[in-house]
């Protein structure tokens, strides 16, 4: 049984965790029920086993490209009967968008694909709704660029604004009908620890039951994540944040920081792209805002939407013209507060601000964890662009990992980074010589099977590979560049990417089945697992 690091927690920690959170027990029960479903799925795949091997599917980051490709992977795994044999489903960045969509559609992948086609068959974005959600978020004391990014950027990228919550996923998960989902983030305040020692406590996870630091064994109920705690006691309850915000929490700073180099950016072109339009918008607002007839009524933002649409179509030169009418026609304090707060957050480059549920907790000796009033959670891709640390020991014992890499660059960057992480912490992970990784990256195949003396078997699937793309890997990568504008993702661009991701699963089904069978035989030798028929 794993114990929590003694240098971080004192004797009071267990009482605190018991009082605040029961999600670990709930997860264990859910996973046990899932194993029954996995056993039935294995039998349908002609694999007989008395105990189900633990299989995890991981999706990497990659923005909208990862979102679409991960949807393809999930859809084809469902079609091939493979998804029902999976215990855990974990994602980073863009893959979290796809994974969350699977649950909001109750695991119906046909509906998932239909929704995808519907969203990208039309060039529409509900700007009014996105703007209203952002303004509402700006009323919070913990407003940050994550809110702006979630409601104004990612909603435009994906053409959707989900309002459900992680806790809404409990029913299918507890019934075992879908894999247990894990969404990854990292603690931005711990970046020195990660850069120096690849500290395990840097990683943060969200599940339908809890949120917290796996390496520390410190969690809070997902319904209380974001609420205010002090000395282990709930001080003030805040509503659970929606999935739109979670998507912003799990993907944001990586793309703006230049594709994964973890650094604080205070004066950059990206910062200017936030600050300058906000300043111009505020000037335009001072000229055009009307007087509200009833200051006490719920504000109507239709005029703001129209103004913003007109403003974004205006030439840059005209937008930068000085304000000729400095006199105000009225007051819309909440909108101005949104503009002001976003500008401040941009100047500080502040992301992922939330109350620290470990604040002033006396059982924690590491003051870095207990002295902060707030956490700042950002895209886990800034550390490793696939959530390997959340399914490896000591967090979890997984027998087979299916790693789907949706990178546009080196598809083995995540393997290199995870190898280094595991070496530092003495975690079993397949070792591959650097020279071999370099050779593979020049002309990647569709599937690699990595095995070590101990630990899980890792099947690694590069999205763009010679088996599917031939000699056109570079052209595919350019077409689906991470920074490609959302408006260029028309249906005729989306569907080939979806088909490519599905083909990568379909063409490697036999290999996946073979490794599932091997895992059942290796980890449960007393209960002999064998194939009922050749596949």
Automatic annotation (TrEMBL):
GO annotations of cellular component type: cytosol; endoplasmic reticulum membrane; lipid droplet; mitochondrial membrane; nuclear envelope; nucleoplasm
Pfam families linked: PLA2_B
Catalysis performed (reactions): a 1,2-diacyl-sn-glycero-3-phosphocholine + H2O = a 1-acyl-sn-glycero-3-phosphocholine + a fatty acid + H(+); 1-hexadecanoyl-2-(5Z,8Z,11Z,14Z-eicosatetraenoyl)-sn-glycero-3-phosphocholine + H2O = 1-hexadecanoyl-sn-glycero-3-phosphocholine + (5Z,8Z,11Z,14Z)-eicosatetraenoate + H(+)
Domain of life: Eukaryota
UniProt keyword annotations, A-Z: Hydrolase, Lipid degradation, Lipid metabolism
One Gene Ontology molecular-function label: O-acyltransferase activity
Limits of the PLA2c domain: 9-535
SMART domains with a match to the protein in the record: PLAc
InterPro entries documented for this protein: Acyl_Trfase/lysoPLipase (IPR016035), LysoPLipase_cat_dom (IPR002642)
GO biological process: glycerophospholipid catabolic process; lipid droplet formation; phosphatidylcholine acyl-chain remodeling; phosphatidylethanolamine acyl-chain remodeling; platelet activating factor biosynthetic process
UniProt-listed SUPFAM superfamilies: FabD/lysophospholipase-like (SSF52151)
Keyword Hydrolase part of the UniProt annotation: yes
Protein name stated in the entry: Phospholipase A2 group IVC
Organism: Macaca nemestrina (Pig-tailed macaque)
The encoding gene: PLA2G4C
């Amino acid at each position: 049984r794993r114990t929590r690091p003694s240098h971080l927690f004192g004797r009071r920690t267990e009482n605190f965790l018991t009082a605040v959170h029961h999600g670990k027990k709930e997860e264990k029960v859910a996973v046990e029920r899932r194993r029954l479903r996995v056993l039935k799925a294995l039998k349908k795949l002609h694999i007989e086993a008395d105990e189900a091997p633990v299989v995890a599917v991981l999706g990497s980051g990659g923005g909208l490209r990862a979102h679409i490709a991960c949807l393809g992977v999930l859809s084809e795994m469902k079609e091939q009967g493979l998804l029902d044999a999976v215990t855990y489903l974990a994602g980073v960045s863009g893959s979290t968008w796809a994974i969350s969509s699977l649950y909001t559609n109750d695991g119906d992948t046909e509906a998932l694909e239909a929704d995808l086609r519907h969203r990208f068959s039309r060039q529409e974005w509900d700007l009014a709704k996105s703007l209203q959600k952002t303004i509402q978020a700006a009323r919070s004391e913990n407003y940050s660029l994550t809110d702006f990014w979630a409601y104004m950027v990612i909603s435009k990228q994906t053409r959707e604004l989900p309002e459900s919550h992680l806790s809404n996923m409990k029913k299918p998960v507890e019934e075992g009908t879908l894999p247990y989902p894990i969404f990854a983030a990292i603690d931005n305040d711990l970046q020195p620890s990660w850069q120096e020692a690849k500290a395990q406590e840097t990683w943060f996870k969200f599940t339908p039951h809890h949120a917290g630091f796996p390496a520390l064994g410190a969690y809070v109920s997902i319904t209380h994540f974001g609420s205010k705690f002090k000395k282990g006691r709930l001080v003030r309850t805040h509503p659970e944040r929606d999935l739109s915000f979670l998507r912003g929490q799990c993907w944001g700073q990586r793309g703006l920081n230049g594709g994964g180099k973890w650094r604080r950016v205070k004066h950059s072109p990206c910062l200017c792209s936030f600050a300058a339009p906000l300043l111009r918008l505020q000037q335009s607002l001072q000229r055009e805002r009307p007087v509200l007839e009833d200051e006490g009524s719920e504000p109507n933002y239709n005029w703001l939407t129209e103004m913003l649409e007109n403003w974004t179509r205006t030439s840059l030169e005209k937008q930068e013209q000085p304000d000729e009418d400095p006199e105000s026609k009225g007051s819309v304090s909440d909108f101005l507060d949104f503009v002001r707060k976003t500008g401040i957050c941009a100047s500080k480059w502040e992301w992922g601000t939330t109350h620290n549920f470990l604040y002033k907790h006396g059982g924690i000796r590491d003051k870095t964890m207990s002295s902060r009033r707030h956490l700042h959670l950002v895209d886990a891709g800034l550390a490793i662009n696939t959530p390997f640390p959340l399914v490896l020991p000591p967090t979890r014992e997984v027998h087979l990992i299916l790693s789907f890499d949706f990178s546009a660059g080196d598809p083995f960057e995540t393997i290199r980074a995870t190898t280094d992480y595991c070496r530092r912490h003495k975690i079993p992970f397949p070792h591959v010589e650097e020279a071999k990784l370099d050779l593979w990256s020049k002309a990647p195949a569709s599937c690699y099977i990595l095995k070590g003396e101990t630990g899980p078997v890792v099947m690694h699937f590069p999205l763009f590979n010679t088996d599917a793309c031939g000699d056109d890997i570079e052209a595919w990568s350019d077409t689906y560049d991470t920074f490609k504008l959302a408006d260029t993702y028309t249906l005729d661009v989306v569907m080939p990417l979806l088909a490519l991701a599905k083909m990568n699963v379909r063409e490697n089904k036999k290999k996946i089945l073979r490794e599932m069978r091997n895992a059942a035989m290796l980890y449960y030798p007393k209960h002999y697992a064998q194939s009922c028929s050749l596949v």
